[in-house]
Amino acid sequence: MSTAALPQARSWHLRGTVLPQGGVRDLWITNGVVAPGPVPGAVTLASDCWIMPGLVDAHCHIGLDSHGGTTMDTARAQARTDRDAGTLLIRDAGSPIDTHELDHEADMPRIIRAGRHIARPKRYLRHYGVEIETGQLVDEVTRQARRGDGWVKLVGDWIDRDLGDLAPLWDPDEASMAIAAAHAQGARVTAHCFGEQSVAELVGAGIDCIEHGTGMSDEVIAAMAARGVALVPTMINLATFPDIARAAEAKYPRYASHMRALFEGHLPMLRAAREAGVAIYAGTDAGGTIHHGRIGDEALALAQLGDHEFALGAASWRAREWLGATGLEVGDSADLVVYGADPREELEVVRRPQLVLLRGVPQQQSALR
Predict the structure, then answer these.
(1) Which of 80, 203, 223, 280 is spaced 20 to 30 Å from 189 by Cα?
(2) Among 234, 215, 116, which residue's Cα sits nearest to residue 166?
(3) In the chain, how many H helices and how many E strands?
(4) Residue 364 confidence (pLDDT)
(5) Among candidates 254, 214, 287, 280, which has minimal Cα distance to 66?
(6) How is the beta sheet containing 87-92 ordered, strand by strand?
(7) Residues 105, 62: contact at Cβ < 8 Å?
(8) What DSSP assignment string belongs to 69-107?
């Protein structure tokens, strides 16, 4: 890959293999969008390279850390870390703070928000979500649908300390009414689900997406495929299950055993979901205890479920289409990542973008070489 130094310019040119189509193309960029070319005066940024639409982290938390809500400056730094890793579109799967002011900052990745997590008292991590009682779900889902950008996030299950194991938070009939209320607001609903019961009940209630999904049965997988229910497995989050089990062993041995069993079965189960036709997308779950900027790690983990192109699509063009974002056609916003080797052959390079353009502006000048 060859690149040029970055003079002051408004128009750019790149020549390389553009994915997913795979052919060599000239990309001309002016005023932030992909333009028909050639564009007079455009500066060539890169050639002999591989170009992809900007990466997508479909389960990320901007403005959240292990203690709850952060300052806006911390949220901004989190977003920049993701951007520099190539993530130019984020579906924020729940944040205690309102980060809409970042939408007015040109160097911030695009963010699609799900409002706040919706949980019941003492049935989720402290200071993360809004906590409500049974019977209040429809009203709260309606409120969060208006607060977000077309998504609502439920906590589908969590440890029940009296039971000593995972258990659903919501009555299926109330969940069904709440999902219908979100749909009436033009919003889709997703849910955190580790165990078997919650995912089965919420898929039956008409949910649009499942996060994690380690408890999916063959019947639930078939229903998800038939109904178009998406899955964001957060592979690097699932890798923490043995540590979670180890920490819980002394006080909650039943829960610990359950989490180990979910971990041990997750790869064949997720492969079965992919083979059944469930749409799977990349999400890191960054923002709680997982560091930002790990979309490349998530893509590598997703390759365990299929081939490299499957993983790349889950983290780029298929996820962008699912979330209503553009690609790299004439008139599209110039949100793209550039690599010095073919990620279909060397998937590890997705961890190291050599150039990131957001809204047609280079964001990683120091990475050019």
Answers:
(1) 80
(2) 215
(3) 11, 21
(4) 60
(5) 287
(6) 55-60, 87-92, 110-113
(7) no
(8) E--HHHHHHHHHHHHHTTEEEEEE---SS--GGGGG-TT
Nearest Cα residue to 349 out of 297, 314, 301: 297
Instruction: For the chain, give the number of residues.
Output: 369
Q: Which of 183, 170, 177 is nearest to 118 (CA)?
A: 170
> Nearest CA to 200 among 182, 218, 183, 179?
218
- Closest alpha carbon to 297 in 285, 280, 279, 309: 285
Cα 61 versus chain centre, distance? 9
Sorted by sequence, the CB contacts under 8 Å of residue 229 that are 6+ apart come out as 203, 207, 208, 209, 210, 223, 278
Q: For residues 29 and 70, what is the distance between their CA atoms, to the nearest angstrom?
A: 36
Instruction: Name residue 101's beta-bridge partners.
Output: none
Tokens standing for residue 41: 């005066």
Mind listing the pLDDT tens digit for each residue in 116-150?
A: 999 999 999 999 999 999 999 999 999 999 999 99
Report residue 202 as tokens.
């919420």
The closest of 178, 208, 174, 176 to 191, measured between CA atoms, is: 208
Q: What is the 3-state secondary structure (H, E, C) of 229-282?
A: CEEECCHHHHCCHHHHHHHHCCCCHHHHHHHHHHHHHHHHHHHHHHHHCCCECC
Taking the CA of residue 299 as centre, how many other CA atoms within 13 Å lie in the half-sphere pointing to its CB? 31
Question: What pairs with residue 190 in β-bridges?
Answer: 153, 209
Do residues 197 and 175 make contact, with C-beta atoms less than 8 angstroms apart? no
Contact between residue 151 and residue 112 where contact means Cβ atoms under 8 Å apart? yes
Q: To the nearest 10°, the Cα dihedral for 85, 286, 295, 75?
A: -30
Q: Are strands 43-53 and 336-339 parallel, antiparallel or unpaired?
A: antiparallel
Chain segment 155-210, per-residue pLDDT in tens:
999 999 999 999 999 999 999 999 999 999 999 999 999 999 999 999 999 999 99
pLDDT band per the 50, 70, 90 thresholds, residue 1: low
